[in-house]
Backbone:
């Protein structure tokens, strides 16, 4: 066998890119086929479907005063009225898509910013590493929600600003996780080979390192998506969301909670939708992490990295 | 886990002596004169403290920059576009905006150190008088929650580990996954629905405590906020404790203890538990860190007069001196707890004590 070896590689070049793409597609698929993954996917898809199709099937305008304030559920208004007498069902159906879009964009900002910072800190080392990681330390010294409130306090609660703020507040945690993942990868032979061929650092990071970080990157994306939904819905609940007449689930919970004993559905239904969405995304992420990374990681590291975005110290 | 973590608490205490050989080897390389001969743990702690001070300074710069410098003129942002020039000028003087950036920072930071963080823009009262009772109320909330949560989490985690793959273990693992996904305001709303409005009416839904009074005057108001935060932090502690306990129970030293005939309760309490607690302490510390942010939403939901609710009110009113002060307090708590967690974890884990 070994005697014939020199001829074989030249005859059949290996399709490297293809193998990698195939791999993460397979990972997603096998995660979706585990019981946990399937449950998570079904829950999240249900809520996404409600949010996307909702505006087209809502019976009333979400802003029209059509029934009594905190009116009880009836045949015409299955979920009753809200604190001003608007149709709760129509507001629920209209109130999801803004949250979903904001969460998706915030996650994209956090992941791309954090990945860029983390990968370049680990690969470039030296001064860049020091500066990037100290900046990360400083931002991590604020609780995430407090950091978001700080930035919103002067610029006012515009939607694009909330989205960017939440994205930026994710970046340091993503950077930490990807920095430690990059430290492993950048020592491998194929990276050294690319460097010896004279590849520019930016290209090495983009073409050689990043494709090998797909698993941690996707686990992070799932986690950050869940946290984005949690924080954006929470900010809307605190009054920093789409301005008043607009319907969003977080805002609805806050504005209708004084009438909980009159018409609890105006609070329960939006709360349940947010809960199903975050449980769905988190459960699927958990299933994916089990398939892609495995449960055999040391428990300390797994618990620390997953939940609070910190790598175990030293 | 290696044999190092298998040492009993009594042994770990002895290892801490100054003249232990492993330790003196680690000190050897060139160090600043003041630290030569100092215990490596002490050196590590000093280093962490120094880094903490630097980070706190940078944090204060970020807070200052974000609230006062970032969007051009803060006075316009507060008063709105159609403010009269006279009012803008008055506010600029109140905020020291008419001076240079470094001057402004100096006035603010020296005010902080002399116990005078300025006046509220909303009512003109001193910030300290407004924030002080809130700090105490929030501290009560955080530490009561932390104590109950740590105890409950460790107990439930240990039980789940002892009954590994039993029904309790399966139920908790599903509940843990679900609860860790939930935003804290949903947990709070769920408790309000369950306990104070729709289903039962046993507890007050919002606290009617007057701002400036202390929470322990009406302890029943603490029940729901504490319950919410305990539910939010327990899953993380439970999961960590379970994992560490499972690892300890499967270790050689536990098998050894069983083989030599130590009673099972003693194996669990004296051999496995102390080694499982060490890694759990760090997660408990991280949950204290989480509480610094978690209290904001929970205090708002229950109208609990702490710093979190004060921050939301101040952000709504754009009361800059109050925002600056509260954010800095929360960040300082965060930095200090971070250091405390690292130090305690260092002291609780024998193999980490040998300096790198």
Residues:
């Amino acid at each position: 066998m070994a005697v014939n070896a020199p001829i074989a590689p030249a005859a059949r070049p290996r399709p490297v890119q293809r193998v990698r793409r195939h791999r993460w597609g397979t990972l997603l698929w096998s995660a979706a086929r585990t019981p946990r993954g399937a449950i998570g996917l079904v829950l999240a898809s249900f809520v996404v479907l409600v949010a996307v199709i909702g505006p087209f099937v809502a019976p009333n305008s979400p802003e029209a005063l059509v029934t009594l304030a905190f009116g009880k559920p009836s045949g015409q208004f299955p979920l009753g009225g809200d604190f001003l007498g608007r149709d709760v069902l129509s507001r629920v159906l209209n109130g999801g898509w803004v949250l979903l879009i904001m969460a998706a964009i915030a996650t994209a900002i956090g992941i791309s910013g954090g990945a860029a910072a983390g990968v370049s800190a680990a690969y470039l080392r030296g001064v860049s590493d020091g500066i990037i990681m100290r900046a990360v330390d400083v931002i991590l010294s604020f609780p995430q929600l407090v950091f978001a409130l700080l930035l919103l306090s002067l610029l006012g609660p515009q939607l694009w600003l909330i989205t960017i703020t939440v994205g930026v507040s994710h970046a340091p945690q993503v950077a930490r996780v990807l920095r430690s993942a990059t430290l492993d990868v950048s020592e491998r032979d194929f990276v050294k080979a690319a460097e010896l061929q004279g590849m520019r650092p930016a290209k090495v990071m983009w073409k050689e390192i990043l494709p090998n970080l797909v698993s941690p990157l996707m686990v992070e994306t799932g986690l950050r998506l869940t946290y984005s939904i949690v924080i954006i819905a929470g900010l809307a609940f605190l009054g920093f969301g789409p301005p008043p007449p607009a319907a969003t689930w977080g805002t609805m919970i806050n504005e209708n909670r004084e009438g909980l004993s009159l018409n609890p559905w105006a609070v329960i239904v939006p709360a349940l939708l947010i809960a199903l969405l975050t449980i769905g995304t988190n459960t699927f992420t958990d299933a994916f992490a089990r398939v892609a990374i495995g449960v055999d990681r040391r428990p300390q590291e797994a618990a620390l990295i997953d939940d609070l975005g910190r790598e175990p110290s030293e | 886990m290696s044999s190092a973590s298998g040492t009993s608490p009594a042994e770990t205490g002895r290892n801490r002596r100054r003249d232990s050989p492993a330790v003196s080897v680690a000190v050897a390389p060139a160090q600043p004169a003041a630290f030569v001969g100092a215990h490596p743990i002490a050196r590590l702690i000093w280093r962490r403290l120094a880094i903490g001070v630097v980070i706190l300074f940078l944090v204060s710069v970020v807070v200052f920059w974000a609230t006062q410098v970032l969007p051009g003129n803060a006075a316009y942002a507060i008063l709105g576009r159609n403010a009269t020039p006279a009012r803008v000028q008055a506010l600029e003087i109140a905020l020291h905006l008419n001076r240079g950036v470094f001057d402004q920072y100096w006035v603010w930071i020296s005010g902080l150190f002399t116990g005078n963080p300025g006046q509220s823009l909303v009512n003109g009262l001193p910030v300290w008088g407004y924030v002080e009772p809130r700090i105490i109320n929030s501290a009560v909330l955080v530490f009561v929650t932390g104590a109950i949560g740590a105890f409950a989490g460790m107990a439930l985690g240990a039980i789940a580990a002892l009954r590994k793959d039993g029904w309790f273990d399966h139920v908790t693992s599903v509940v843990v996954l679900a609860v860790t996904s939930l935003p804290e305001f949903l947990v709070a709303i769920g408790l309000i629905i369950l306990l104070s409005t729709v289903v039962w009416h046993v507890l007050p839904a919002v606290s009617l405590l007057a701002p400036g009074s202390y929470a322990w005057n009406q302890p029943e108001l603490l029940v729901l906020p504490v319950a919410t935060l305990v539910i939010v932090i327990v899953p993380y502690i439970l999961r960590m404790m379970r994992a560490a306990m499972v690892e300890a129970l499967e270790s050689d030293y536990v098998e050894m203890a069983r083989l030599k005939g130590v009673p099972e309760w003693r194996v669990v309490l004296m051999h496995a538990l102390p080694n499982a607690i060490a890694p759990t302490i760090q997660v408990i510390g991280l949950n204290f860190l989480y509480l610094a942010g978690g209290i904001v939403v929970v205090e708002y939901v229950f109208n609990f007069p702490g710093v979190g609710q004060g921050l939301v009110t101040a952000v709504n009113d754009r009361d800059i001196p109050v925002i600056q002060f509260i954010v800095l307090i929360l960040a300082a708590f965060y930095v200090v707890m971070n250091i405390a967690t690292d130090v305690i974890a260092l002291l609780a884990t024998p193999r980490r004590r040998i300096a790198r």
